Write the C-alpha coordinates for this entry.
Amino acid sequence: MRLYEHEAKIIFRQQGIPVPRQIGIAGRPEDLDAMDLSFPLVIKALVLTGGRGKAGGVQKAGSRPDAGRKIREILGSTIRGYAVERCLVEEAVQELGAFYLGITMDPADYSLVFMASASGGVDIETAARENPGAILKKVITDNAKKLPENTSAGIADFLVRDRDRSGDLRSPLIGIIESLYALYQQFDCRMAEINPLIITPSGPVAADAKVVLDDNGLYRQGALLEAVGIRDTRHDVSEPSRNELRARAAGIPYVDLLPENHRKDDSKLYVGLVPGGAGYGIFSIDETANIGDRFFDGRVVPVNFMDSGGGPPRGRVAEMFHLLMDYPIVDVIITSRFGGISSCDTFIRGLIDCLRERRQKGLRMVPVFGRMVGTDLSSARDFLKQAKSESPEALKDLSMVVGNRVIMADIIREAITRAFEIKGLKR
Protein backbone atom coordinates (compact mmCIF):
# COMPACT_ATOMS: atom_id res chain seq x y z
CA MET A 1 0.00 0.00 0.00
CA ARG A 2 1.42 3.34 -1.07
CA LEU A 3 1.18 6.35 1.22
CA TYR A 4 0.54 9.86 -0.01
CA GLU A 5 3.40 12.29 0.51
CA HIS A 6 1.84 14.07 3.48
CA GLU A 7 1.13 10.73 5.16
CA ALA A 8 4.71 9.56 4.66
CA LYS A 9 5.97 12.85 6.12
CA ILE A 10 3.96 12.26 9.29
CA ILE A 11 6.04 9.10 9.76
CA PHE A 12 9.24 10.94 8.90
CA ARG A 13 8.56 13.59 11.55
CA GLN A 14 7.81 10.91 14.15
CA GLN A 15 11.12 9.22 13.33
CA GLY A 16 13.13 12.46 13.58
CA ILE A 17 13.61 13.09 9.85
CA PRO A 18 13.26 16.85 9.17
CA VAL A 19 10.53 17.82 6.69
CA PRO A 20 9.22 21.22 5.49
CA ARG A 21 6.35 22.76 7.46
CA GLN A 22 3.11 21.19 6.31
CA ILE A 23 0.58 23.98 5.80
CA GLY A 24 -2.46 22.01 4.71
CA ILE A 25 -4.38 19.98 2.12
CA ALA A 26 -6.42 21.81 -0.50
CA GLY A 27 -9.24 20.31 -2.54
CA ARG A 28 -10.12 23.73 -3.98
CA PRO A 29 -8.43 27.16 -4.07
CA GLU A 30 -10.77 28.51 -1.35
CA ASP A 31 -9.26 26.06 1.16
CA LEU A 32 -6.26 28.39 1.38
CA ASP A 33 -8.38 30.88 3.36
CA ALA A 34 -8.29 28.62 6.43
CA MET A 35 -4.52 28.05 6.28
CA ASP A 36 -1.69 29.87 8.03
CA LEU A 37 0.16 30.88 4.88
CA SER A 38 3.74 32.08 4.59
CA PHE A 39 5.45 32.67 1.28
CA PRO A 40 7.06 31.35 -0.78
CA LEU A 41 5.28 28.02 -0.58
CA VAL A 42 5.01 24.88 -2.72
CA ILE A 43 1.84 23.37 -4.21
CA LYS A 44 2.08 19.62 -4.89
CA ALA A 45 -0.35 17.25 -6.57
CA LEU A 46 -1.33 14.42 -4.21
CA VAL A 47 -1.32 11.37 -6.46
CA LEU A 48 0.06 7.88 -5.94
CA THR A 49 2.56 8.04 -8.78
CA GLY A 50 5.91 9.57 -9.64
CA GLY A 51 6.78 12.11 -12.29
CA ARG A 52 4.75 14.93 -10.71
CA GLY A 53 7.38 17.60 -11.26
CA LYS A 54 7.81 16.86 -14.97
CA ALA A 55 4.03 16.90 -15.41
CA GLY A 56 3.62 20.31 -13.76
CA GLY A 57 2.28 18.86 -10.53
CA VAL A 58 4.82 20.65 -8.28
CA GLN A 59 4.86 24.46 -8.40
CA LYS A 60 6.04 27.32 -6.21
CA ALA A 61 3.79 30.24 -5.33
CA GLY A 62 4.83 33.67 -4.07
CA SER A 63 1.46 35.12 -3.07
CA ARG A 64 -2.12 34.17 -2.13
CA PRO A 65 -3.53 34.86 -5.64
CA ASP A 66 -0.61 33.01 -7.21
CA ALA A 67 -1.20 30.00 -4.93
CA GLY A 68 -4.90 29.95 -5.83
CA ARG A 69 -4.09 29.95 -9.54
CA LYS A 70 -1.57 27.15 -9.15
CA ILE A 71 -3.98 24.99 -7.14
CA ARG A 72 -6.74 25.50 -9.73
CA GLU A 73 -4.32 24.55 -12.52
CA ILE A 74 -3.00 21.44 -10.77
CA LEU A 75 -6.44 20.22 -9.69
CA GLY A 76 -7.58 20.22 -13.30
CA SER A 77 -4.72 18.00 -14.45
CA THR A 78 -4.09 14.28 -14.85
CA ILE A 79 -0.66 12.80 -14.05
CA ARG A 80 0.18 9.40 -15.55
CA GLY A 81 -3.48 8.48 -15.62
CA TYR A 82 -4.23 9.74 -12.09
CA ALA A 83 -6.71 12.63 -11.80
CA VAL A 84 -5.52 15.18 -9.23
CA GLU A 85 -8.19 15.78 -6.58
CA ARG A 86 -6.11 17.27 -3.74
CA CYS A 87 -2.96 19.34 -3.34
CA LEU A 88 -0.40 19.46 -0.54
CA VAL A 89 0.57 22.96 0.52
CA GLU A 90 3.89 23.28 2.33
CA GLU A 91 6.65 25.78 2.92
CA ALA A 92 9.32 26.26 0.28
CA VAL A 93 12.85 25.66 1.52
CA GLN A 94 16.08 27.19 0.24
CA GLU A 95 18.10 24.62 -1.70
CA LEU A 96 21.88 24.51 -1.59
CA GLY A 97 22.09 20.95 -2.92
CA ALA A 98 20.09 17.73 -3.12
CA PHE A 99 20.73 14.07 -2.29
CA TYR A 100 18.84 10.82 -2.87
CA LEU A 101 18.25 8.13 -0.23
CA GLY A 102 16.22 4.98 -0.65
CA ILE A 103 15.87 1.48 0.69
CA THR A 104 14.04 -1.49 -0.82
CA MET A 105 14.30 -5.26 -1.10
CA ASP A 106 16.02 -7.11 -3.94
CA PRO A 107 13.40 -9.72 -5.02
CA ALA A 108 16.12 -11.93 -6.48
CA ASP A 109 17.55 -12.91 -3.08
CA TYR A 110 15.43 -10.97 -0.53
CA SER A 111 18.37 -8.92 0.70
CA LEU A 112 17.83 -5.26 1.58
CA VAL A 113 19.45 -2.62 -0.58
CA PHE A 114 20.22 0.90 0.64
CA MET A 115 20.85 3.32 -2.22
CA ALA A 116 22.30 6.82 -2.08
CA SER A 117 23.30 9.47 -4.57
CA ALA A 118 24.56 13.03 -4.48
CA SER A 119 22.36 13.60 -7.57
CA GLY A 120 19.04 14.06 -5.83
CA GLY A 121 15.86 15.51 -7.26
CA VAL A 122 16.17 13.68 -10.59
CA ASP A 123 14.96 10.39 -12.00
CA ILE A 124 17.21 8.00 -10.09
CA GLU A 125 16.85 5.25 -12.72
CA THR A 126 18.09 7.61 -15.41
CA ALA A 127 20.97 8.75 -13.21
CA ALA A 128 21.95 5.12 -12.58
CA ARG A 129 22.03 4.34 -16.31
CA GLU A 130 23.92 7.46 -17.36
CA ASN A 131 26.38 7.63 -14.46
CA PRO A 132 26.52 4.37 -12.44
CA GLY A 133 29.34 5.73 -10.28
CA ALA A 134 26.99 8.36 -8.89
CA ILE A 135 24.89 5.69 -7.15
CA LEU A 136 26.05 3.88 -4.02
CA LYS A 137 24.38 0.57 -3.20
CA LYS A 138 24.82 -1.11 0.17
CA VAL A 139 23.44 -4.64 0.42
CA ILE A 140 22.28 -5.76 3.87
CA THR A 141 21.97 -9.54 3.80
CA ASP A 142 21.15 -10.37 7.42
CA ASN A 143 17.94 -8.28 7.65
CA ALA A 144 19.36 -6.40 10.63
CA LYS A 145 16.81 -4.34 12.55
CA LYS A 146 19.35 -1.55 12.98
CA LEU A 147 21.67 -0.30 10.27
CA PRO A 148 25.30 -0.95 11.25
CA GLU A 149 27.14 2.26 12.21
CA ASN A 150 29.91 1.71 9.70
CA THR A 151 27.31 1.37 6.93
CA SER A 152 25.48 4.60 7.77
CA ALA A 153 28.80 6.43 8.16
CA GLY A 154 30.00 5.07 4.81
CA ILE A 155 26.85 6.25 3.06
CA ALA A 156 27.17 9.72 4.57
CA ASP A 157 30.84 9.93 3.56
CA PHE A 158 29.92 8.98 0.00
CA LEU A 159 27.37 11.79 -0.18
CA VAL A 160 29.61 14.55 1.17
CA ARG A 161 32.87 13.48 -0.46
CA ASP A 162 32.88 16.36 -2.97
CA ARG A 163 31.42 19.06 -0.72
CA ASP A 164 33.17 21.78 1.23
CA ARG A 165 32.53 21.90 4.99
CA SER A 166 31.21 18.36 4.81
CA GLY A 167 31.59 18.01 8.57
CA ASP A 168 28.52 20.21 9.03
CA LEU A 169 26.45 17.67 7.08
CA ARG A 170 27.93 14.34 8.04
CA SER A 171 26.36 13.99 11.48
CA PRO A 172 22.76 14.92 10.53
CA LEU A 173 23.02 12.77 7.41
CA ILE A 174 24.00 9.74 9.49
CA GLY A 175 20.98 10.36 11.70
CA ILE A 176 18.59 10.56 8.72
CA ILE A 177 20.10 7.47 7.08
CA GLU A 178 19.69 5.44 10.26
CA SER A 179 16.15 6.74 10.85
CA LEU A 180 15.08 5.91 7.29
CA TYR A 181 16.35 2.35 7.69
CA ALA A 182 14.72 2.01 11.11
CA LEU A 183 11.28 3.08 9.86
CA TYR A 184 11.61 0.74 6.88
CA GLN A 185 12.08 -2.16 9.27
CA GLN A 186 9.63 -1.03 11.94
CA PHE A 187 6.69 -0.40 9.64
CA ASP A 188 6.95 -3.42 7.29
CA CYS A 189 7.89 -1.30 4.29
CA ARG A 190 8.56 -2.44 0.76
CA MET A 191 10.18 0.90 -0.04
CA ALA A 192 11.17 4.05 1.82
CA GLU A 193 12.65 6.88 -0.22
CA ILE A 194 13.67 10.54 0.06
CA ASN A 195 14.09 12.30 -3.28
CA PRO A 196 15.18 14.97 -2.93
CA LEU A 197 16.82 15.30 0.46
CA ILE A 198 17.46 19.03 0.16
CA ILE A 199 20.46 20.67 1.78
CA THR A 200 19.31 23.96 3.31
CA PRO A 201 21.31 26.58 5.29
CA SER A 202 20.04 24.94 8.49
CA GLY A 203 20.70 21.34 7.41
CA PRO A 204 19.14 18.52 5.35
CA VAL A 205 15.36 18.40 4.90
CA ALA A 206 13.26 15.67 3.26
CA ALA A 207 11.47 17.68 0.57
CA ASP A 208 9.66 14.59 -0.71
CA ALA A 209 8.74 11.29 0.91
CA LYS A 210 7.78 7.95 -0.59
CA VAL A 211 6.71 5.03 1.57
CA VAL A 212 5.20 1.76 0.32
CA LEU A 213 3.90 -0.62 2.99
CA ASP A 214 3.84 -4.39 2.57
CA ASP A 215 0.18 -5.42 2.49
CA ASN A 216 1.09 -8.66 4.27
CA GLY A 217 2.26 -6.69 7.32
CA LEU A 218 -0.64 -4.25 7.59
CA TYR A 219 -2.28 -6.25 10.38
CA ARG A 220 0.67 -5.19 12.57
CA GLN A 221 0.45 -1.52 11.64
CA GLY A 222 -2.84 -0.37 13.15
CA ALA A 223 -1.19 2.41 15.15
CA LEU A 224 0.70 3.66 12.10
CA LEU A 225 -2.42 3.73 9.91
CA GLU A 226 -4.35 5.58 12.62
CA ALA A 227 -1.51 8.10 12.99
CA VAL A 228 -1.63 9.01 9.31
CA GLY A 229 -5.43 9.08 9.22
CA ILE A 230 -6.17 5.84 7.38
CA ARG A 231 -9.23 4.21 8.94
CA ASP A 232 -9.59 1.32 6.49
CA THR A 233 -7.16 -0.48 4.20
CA ARG A 234 -6.60 1.61 1.10
CA HIS A 235 -7.36 -0.30 -2.09
CA ASP A 236 -5.16 1.64 -4.45
CA VAL A 237 -3.31 0.69 -7.59
CA SER A 238 0.42 1.17 -7.12
CA GLU A 239 2.45 2.88 -9.81
CA PRO A 240 2.34 0.31 -12.60
CA SER A 241 5.30 -0.64 -14.75
CA ARG A 242 5.16 -0.50 -18.54
CA ASN A 243 4.62 -4.27 -18.61
CA GLU A 244 1.81 -4.05 -16.07
CA LEU A 245 0.07 -1.29 -18.01
CA ARG A 246 0.32 -3.33 -21.21
CA ALA A 247 -1.00 -6.44 -19.47
CA ARG A 248 -3.86 -4.52 -17.88
CA ALA A 249 -4.93 -3.18 -21.29
CA ALA A 250 -5.01 -6.76 -22.62
CA GLY A 251 -6.93 -8.12 -19.62
CA ILE A 252 -3.98 -10.17 -18.34
CA PRO A 253 -3.35 -10.45 -14.55
CA TYR A 254 0.37 -9.67 -14.38
CA VAL A 255 2.91 -8.32 -11.87
CA ASP A 256 6.58 -7.53 -12.42
CA LEU A 257 8.80 -9.01 -9.69
CA LEU A 258 11.79 -6.79 -10.54
CA PRO A 259 11.93 -2.99 -10.43
CA GLU A 260 11.43 -1.28 -13.74
CA ASN A 261 14.76 -0.79 -15.57
CA HIS A 262 16.41 -3.41 -13.35
CA ARG A 263 20.04 -3.79 -14.39
CA LYS A 264 20.61 -7.28 -15.75
CA ASP A 265 23.36 -9.47 -14.29
CA ASP A 266 24.69 -11.42 -17.26
CA SER A 267 25.85 -14.26 -15.00
CA LYS A 268 22.23 -15.01 -14.08
CA LEU A 269 19.30 -16.53 -15.95
CA TYR A 270 16.08 -14.49 -16.02
CA VAL A 271 12.94 -16.61 -16.36
CA GLY A 272 9.59 -15.37 -17.65
CA LEU A 273 6.58 -17.40 -16.53
CA VAL A 274 3.28 -18.15 -18.27
CA PRO A 275 1.62 -20.62 -15.87
CA GLY A 276 -2.02 -21.67 -15.57
CA GLY A 277 -4.09 -20.16 -12.77
CA ALA A 278 -2.99 -17.85 -9.97
CA GLY A 279 -2.05 -20.68 -7.60
CA TYR A 280 0.02 -22.32 -10.31
CA GLY A 281 1.61 -18.95 -10.96
CA ILE A 282 2.78 -18.71 -7.35
CA PHE A 283 4.03 -22.31 -7.49
CA SER A 284 5.99 -21.52 -10.65
CA ILE A 285 7.73 -18.56 -9.03
CA ASP A 286 8.61 -20.52 -5.90
CA GLU A 287 9.73 -23.65 -7.74
CA THR A 288 11.85 -21.69 -10.23
CA ALA A 289 13.60 -19.85 -7.39
CA ASN A 290 13.93 -23.06 -5.36
CA ILE A 291 15.50 -25.03 -8.23
CA GLY A 292 17.78 -22.09 -8.95
CA ASP A 293 18.98 -22.06 -5.34
CA ARG A 294 19.42 -25.85 -5.09
CA PHE A 295 21.10 -26.62 -8.40
CA PHE A 296 22.31 -23.37 -9.98
CA ASP A 297 24.02 -21.40 -7.17
CA GLY A 298 21.15 -18.95 -6.84
CA ARG A 299 21.67 -17.62 -10.36
CA VAL A 300 18.06 -18.04 -11.51
CA VAL A 301 15.65 -15.08 -11.25
CA PRO A 302 11.89 -15.38 -11.88
CA VAL A 303 10.80 -12.04 -13.32
CA ASN A 304 7.00 -12.03 -13.21
CA PHE A 305 3.73 -13.33 -11.86
CA MET A 306 1.02 -14.10 -14.41
CA ASP A 307 -2.41 -15.74 -14.25
CA SER A 308 -3.43 -17.28 -17.57
CA GLY A 309 -6.25 -19.39 -16.16
CA GLY A 310 -9.97 -19.01 -16.71
CA GLY A 311 -9.99 -19.85 -20.40
CA PRO A 312 -8.30 -16.86 -22.08
CA PRO A 313 -9.00 -16.53 -25.82
CA ARG A 314 -6.36 -17.32 -28.42
CA GLY A 315 -5.34 -13.69 -28.99
CA ARG A 316 -4.81 -13.04 -25.29
CA VAL A 317 -2.65 -16.16 -24.96
CA ALA A 318 -0.51 -14.87 -27.83
CA GLU A 319 -0.17 -11.49 -26.10
CA MET A 320 1.03 -13.16 -22.90
CA PHE A 321 4.03 -14.55 -24.78
CA HIS A 322 4.53 -11.38 -26.84
CA LEU A 323 4.75 -9.36 -23.61
CA LEU A 324 7.51 -11.51 -22.14
CA MET A 325 9.45 -11.79 -25.42
CA ASP A 326 9.37 -7.98 -25.69
CA TYR A 327 10.78 -7.73 -22.14
CA PRO A 328 14.55 -7.46 -22.78
CA ILE A 329 15.58 -9.01 -19.47
CA VAL A 330 13.87 -12.37 -20.17
CA ASP A 331 16.23 -15.18 -21.24
CA VAL A 332 13.74 -18.05 -21.31
CA ILE A 333 10.00 -18.61 -20.86
CA ILE A 334 8.60 -21.52 -18.87
CA THR A 335 4.92 -22.25 -19.36
CA SER A 336 2.32 -24.78 -18.26
CA ARG A 337 -1.26 -25.48 -19.23
CA PHE A 338 -3.30 -27.67 -16.90
CA GLY A 339 -6.52 -27.62 -18.92
CA GLY A 340 -9.59 -27.62 -16.74
CA ILE A 341 -11.63 -24.57 -17.66
CA SER A 342 -8.89 -23.60 -20.08
CA SER A 343 -8.40 -25.41 -23.37
CA CYS A 344 -5.00 -26.83 -24.28
CA ASP A 345 -5.95 -26.40 -27.94
CA THR A 346 -6.65 -22.68 -27.56
CA PHE A 347 -3.47 -22.29 -25.54
CA ILE A 348 -1.12 -23.96 -28.04
CA ARG A 349 -2.71 -22.11 -30.98
CA GLY A 350 -2.17 -18.77 -29.22
CA LEU A 351 1.45 -19.61 -28.42
CA ILE A 352 2.18 -20.73 -31.98
CA ASP A 353 0.46 -17.60 -33.36
CA CYS A 354 2.92 -15.57 -31.31
CA LEU A 355 5.98 -17.50 -32.49
CA ARG A 356 4.96 -17.41 -36.14
CA GLU A 357 4.24 -13.69 -36.07
CA ARG A 358 7.53 -12.86 -34.39
CA ARG A 359 9.47 -15.02 -36.83
CA GLN A 360 7.74 -13.39 -39.79
CA LYS A 361 8.37 -9.84 -38.50
CA GLY A 362 11.95 -10.51 -37.36
CA LEU A 363 11.14 -9.78 -33.73
CA ARG A 364 13.10 -11.04 -30.74
CA MET A 365 12.54 -14.75 -30.07
CA VAL A 366 12.96 -16.38 -26.65
CA PRO A 367 13.18 -20.16 -26.01
CA VAL A 368 9.94 -21.60 -24.58
CA PHE A 369 9.76 -24.75 -22.45
CA GLY A 370 6.62 -26.19 -20.94
CA ARG A 371 3.95 -28.82 -20.52
CA MET A 372 0.26 -29.07 -21.33
CA VAL A 373 -2.24 -31.57 -20.03
CA GLY A 374 -6.04 -31.66 -19.69
CA THR A 375 -8.97 -30.39 -21.74
CA ASP A 376 -8.70 -30.66 -25.55
CA LEU A 377 -5.28 -32.28 -25.24
CA SER A 378 -5.64 -34.57 -28.27
CA SER A 379 -6.53 -31.72 -30.65
CA ALA A 380 -3.74 -29.62 -29.13
CA ARG A 381 -1.26 -32.45 -29.73
CA ASP A 382 -2.36 -32.78 -33.36
CA PHE A 383 -2.12 -29.05 -34.00
CA LEU A 384 1.34 -28.84 -32.43
CA LYS A 385 2.59 -31.73 -34.57
CA GLN A 386 1.23 -30.16 -37.74
CA ALA A 387 2.59 -26.71 -36.84
CA LYS A 388 6.09 -28.08 -36.29
CA SER A 389 6.08 -29.61 -39.77
CA GLU A 390 4.70 -26.42 -41.36
CA SER A 391 6.77 -23.83 -39.42
CA PRO A 392 9.98 -25.56 -38.27
CA GLU A 393 12.04 -22.35 -38.05
CA ALA A 394 9.45 -20.43 -36.04
CA LEU A 395 9.05 -23.33 -33.60
CA LYS A 396 12.65 -24.53 -33.36
CA ASP A 397 13.07 -23.08 -29.84
CA LEU A 398 9.75 -24.47 -28.55
CA SER A 399 9.93 -27.57 -26.34
CA MET A 400 6.49 -28.68 -25.17
CA VAL A 401 5.80 -31.89 -23.24
CA VAL A 402 2.32 -33.21 -24.01
CA GLY A 403 0.69 -35.13 -21.15
CA ASN A 404 1.66 -35.66 -17.53
CA ARG A 405 4.43 -38.22 -17.88
CA VAL A 406 6.91 -35.62 -16.59
CA ILE A 407 6.23 -33.54 -13.48
CA MET A 408 6.45 -29.76 -13.80
CA ALA A 409 9.37 -29.46 -11.37
CA ASP A 410 11.50 -31.64 -13.67
CA ILE A 411 10.46 -29.61 -16.69
CA ILE A 412 11.50 -26.39 -14.92
CA ARG A 413 14.89 -27.87 -14.03
CA GLU A 414 15.47 -29.14 -17.58
CA ALA A 415 14.40 -25.80 -19.06
CA ILE A 416 16.82 -23.90 -16.82
CA THR A 417 19.65 -26.30 -17.66
CA ARG A 418 19.13 -25.92 -21.39
CA ALA A 419 18.63 -22.17 -21.15
CA PHE A 420 22.00 -21.80 -19.41
CA GLU A 421 23.55 -23.77 -22.29
CA ILE A 422 21.80 -21.59 -24.90
CA LYS A 423 23.04 -18.49 -23.10
CA GLY A 424 26.56 -19.90 -23.12
CA LEU A 425 26.93 -19.97 -19.35
CA LYS A 426 28.29 -22.72 -17.14
CA ARG A 427 25.77 -24.31 -14.79
Remarks:
- The longest strand covers residues 189-200.
- The chain has three domains: 21-91, 97-227, 242-423.
- The first helix runs from residue 5 to 14.
